[in-house]
Amino acid sequence: MAFSGFISIDCGTTEEYRDESTGIWYKPDTGFVKGGIIYNFFPKDSFSKRQLTTLRSFPVERRSCYTLRPKQGKDYKYLIRAVFFHGGYDSSAQAPSFDIYLGPNFWARVPRSYKYFSYEIIHTASTDTIYFCLVNFGEGIPFISSLELRPLSKSIYGIASHSLALAHIGRFDVGASNISVYDYVRYKEDIYDRAWNIQSLDTWSAFSNTSVDIDTEGSSNAYRLPAQVLRTAVQPTILSNNLYYNWIYNSSTSYEYCVYFHFAEIQLTPGRRRMINITVNGESFLSEPITLEYLKPLTISTNITTRDYVSFNISPAAGSDLPPILNAFEIHALVPQPNLSTDTRDVDAILEIKNAYGISIIEWQGDPCLPSFLMWNGLNCSNDNSARIISVDLSSRKLTGEISSSFSKLTELESFLDENPGLGRTGSSKKPKFVVPLVASFAVLVIIILVYLVTRKLKSRGGEGVMITKSSKEVPLKSKNRAFTYYEVLHITDNFKTIIGEGGFGTVYLGTVQDNIQVAVKLLSSSSKQGYKEFQSEAQLLMIVHHRNLVSLIGYCDEDNNKALIYEYMTNGNLHQKLSGWTIWCFSGSLSLTSSLPEKPEYFALEYRVQIAVDAAYGLDYLHNGCKPPIIHRDMKTSNILLDDKMQAKISDFGLSRAFANDSDSHISTKPAGTPGYLDPEFHSSVNLNKKSDVYSFGIILLELITGQPALGKATDENNHHILNWVIPKIENGDMQNVVDPRLEGEFNTNTAWKIVEIAMSCTPRTAIQRPDISQVLSELKESVALEMIHDQNDGMDSLQIESQITEVSAR
To answer: Keyword Heme, does the record have it (predicted)?
Structure first.
């Protein structure tokens, strides 16, 4: 029987089974994760474990999370092990690389390899629920073979703090000699199911005593090492008095490591003592030598900060009658876990809301608020030590039915949009039916929550205001929704010291607010032809438009003729810079490069470009279909798609046309704002920009992503040097190799490239009525590309498997 609380998941299997080698029961992963595609294959490798013959891949979403709920709950210590074996299951030319997270914190990056990788971490849970997440950062489709959780005793592996975890580097049985180096000791021999690999050196001499009876469950063996491991040991060869080991890791960063030495005296030597000294990286950490007692296990540990290597030397102490021995040892890296999970009260409340309304948002996986670049769609959170949900925008979900009392449990809410007229009504009833009888209407519920929040914040602040002195370089940012004075803007930008961009609405400067948070400050030009009609009210409106694929407007200045917008700062610039930073002009048929060329950026592989397209489509879909009334961008182009430090794309400058001037109460303006090359051809005849105008511009962006070419060439004749005129003849000839950006050097999936080009062409007919809605474009980008991958990568699969996977992807 497995140690109480084991969670064993075989990713991709469809049935529960008992592992023949360990006796552990494995479950399918369907109850632990949403989305993904199952693959069954038989790896042509020395590995034969059943868990390596299936896997689940996640081609659509950026983050996919397994939800683990161990019965021991929070403040308990767990060993978590994730196994990845690609084995060429998809016949791809290159295996993927992706990140794995434990809750809100980064754990490791899985490298590009077809080999077997096993990652282990010892983690003290801060919440009852543990999220294990795979994050796509653009270098291939994440996948996983198996996931295991094992409860550990609280008395071992001394990391009581939630802010640290131990990432497994090596765990070695150094005395075993009768099993293959490809084998290892696990459960049932090890009650915690740790995997003990074989390690041997020429300067070590192995010996064993299989007849001794070591009490592996007694109080003297808190680490509960398997008797099979403790009954074997090494000692120095006749040529040496010491046991020396050196583990090398080439890194530019210093890490703190924990080394655990496990001893058990297995030789009965009456009247003779075995006394030992230990140094790690040349330094002794023992206050006095250790003396081993017969059949009494002993574990000694130490921490060391180093960059390149961990070495240890075990030597006989003065007065020792016997040489030193070692039975086993472990090396772990201390991994910081700086982010606390989102407050459990908020997590429970938002999940209750999700379940109450049957909200099926596949992106709602893992921690709702953290890491911040993966915050749930429709939420905005504080960045305090323990994140809290401060804004909920579910207006695009068109919710109906009773109003859940769970909304009132989000006690830190600062803004709540209620664009869901169906809420509070059931069936054809005209009278609202509420879960909370004391609340007479949805508006009353919202007012009660907001009055409570405002009152509490006023009490906690005690009337404190924002004070700025002449010597101040940082401006406090108490709220993301606030107005700045022009004096504050001067301090934020250090008197407009650093220009980071120019746009149609003005110059953009780098700024700094509270806690050295960088912002982008767009100082609006006073000579703008649009003027400043309704600027303040529109700026305030834009500040409550929140989506992870829209650049957040966190403040504004509206003081006399001085007007500015303060945005979150995007560290990786804009898409136009990325595409043109290594420019190739091919319109004339000849190839020429710009003067100083950087290395080919790996992050601009086709997978990255497709993800950028998906990100931008999410943002545009929210503007068109998630905002009431819809927001028409009117100037979609590559320079208005910004990239953060994780290369996540966000749309900028949305809604600015209305912030300046408009001809009606809608967000459809008759004033031109488009950029040549991206501007809707129908504008010249209809003098009107609408949703389909943005879709046309988005299609041009897709072509730029695939081809690497600008919307317009270097000539002045737009008709002859427009990207459509360049690409259409090549498409008609089926010449995809000369369509795709040559910087990809042929490393792309042809089916995927064709599909993106098809989507782009569907967006760019001259007649607007022939163009799709952006929601359909987003669906095509997410699902059709995934289906193309399925068909392209699984020639060996039977039709039922492919059909089931197509159904699973389409259902999302």
So the answer is: no
Put simply, whether the predicted model's pTM sits higher than 0.85 gets the answer: no
**Quick one: CATH architecture of 344-461?**
Alpha-Beta Horseshoe (3.80)
Beta bridge partner(s), residue 18: 25
Contacts of 369 (CB under 8 A, 6+ apart): 104, 342, 346, 375, 376, 379, 381, 387, 388, 389
CA dihedral (573, 673, 615, 354) positive or negative: positive
In Å, how far from its chain's centre is CA 758? 29
Q: Catalytic residues, which ones?
A: 635
Q: What are 72's two structure tokens?
A: 């021991």
**7-163, CATH topology level:** Jelly Rolls (2.60.120)
Token code pair at residue 354: 């999700």
Domain with CATH 2.60.120.430 in the chain: 7-163
3-state SS class at 132:
strand
Please state at what angle helix 691-707 crosses helix 606-621, rounded to 10 degrees.
170
Where in the chain is CATH 3.80.10? 344-461
Q: What is the dihedral of CA 498, 501, 502, 507, to 10 degrees?
A: -40
- CATH no. for 466-569: 3.30.200.20
Integer angstrom CA distances of residue 233 from 175, 267, 291, 320, 390: 4, 10, 16, 18, 58
Task: Kindly report, as residue ranges, where domains of CATH 1.10.510.10 are found in the chain.
Answer: 573-812
* Residues sharing a CB contact under 8 Å with residue 776, sequence separation 6 or more, in sequence order: none
Q: Which two tokens stand for residue 112?
A: 């590009």
Q: What is the pLDDT of residues 483-529, one digit of tens each?
A: 888 888 988 998 888 888 876 677 899 999 877 889 999 887 654 43
Contacts of 479 (CB under 8 A, 6+ apart): 414
Annotated binding site for ATP: 522
For residues 240 and 639, which has the higher predicted lDDT (pLDDT)? 639
Distance of alpha carbon 656 from alpha carbon 414, whole angstroms? 24
Q: What distance in Å separates the CA atoms of residue 39 and residue 29, rounded to the nearest whole number? A: 13
Class of domain 573-812: mainly alpha
Helical ranges in 661-811 per DSSP H: 683-686, 691-707, 718-721, 723-732, 750-763, 774-779, 785-793, 799-811
- Report d(CA 139, CA 94) in Å as an integer: 10
Mean pLDDT of 112-122: 92
Selected from 3.40.1000, 3.30.70, 2.60.120, 3.90.1200, the CATH number assigned to the domain covering 170-183+195-336 reads 2.60.120
Please check whether residue 403 is in contact with residue 445, taking contact to mean a CB–CB distance below 8 angstroms.
yes
Label the pairing between strands 275-280 and 309-316: antiparallel
pLDDT at 306: 83
- Residue 394 burial (10 A CB sphere; 0-12, 13-18, 19+): buried
267-300 confidence digits (pLDDT tens) = 999 999 999 999 999 999 999 999 999 999 999 9
pLDDT at 724: 94
Q: Is 298 helix (H, G, I), strand (E, B) or coil?
A: strand
551 touches 567 (CB < 8 A):
yes
- Residue 693, Cβ neighbours under 10 Å: how many? 27
Q: Are 262 and 221 contacting, i.e. CB atoms less than 8 angstroms apart?
A: no
Least confident window among 415-429, 520-534, 606-620, 737-751:
415-429
Residue with tokens 């590559």: 638
Tokens representing 731 are 């498409």
CATH 3.30.200.20, the chain: domain bounds: 466-569
Query: How much of the chain is in helix, strand and coil states, percent to nearest 5?
Result: 25, 25, 50
Instruction: Name the CA radius of gyration of the chain, rounded.
Output: 31
Tens digit of each residue's pLDDT (9 = 90 or more) over 575-606:
998 888 643 333 323 233 333 334 455 567 88
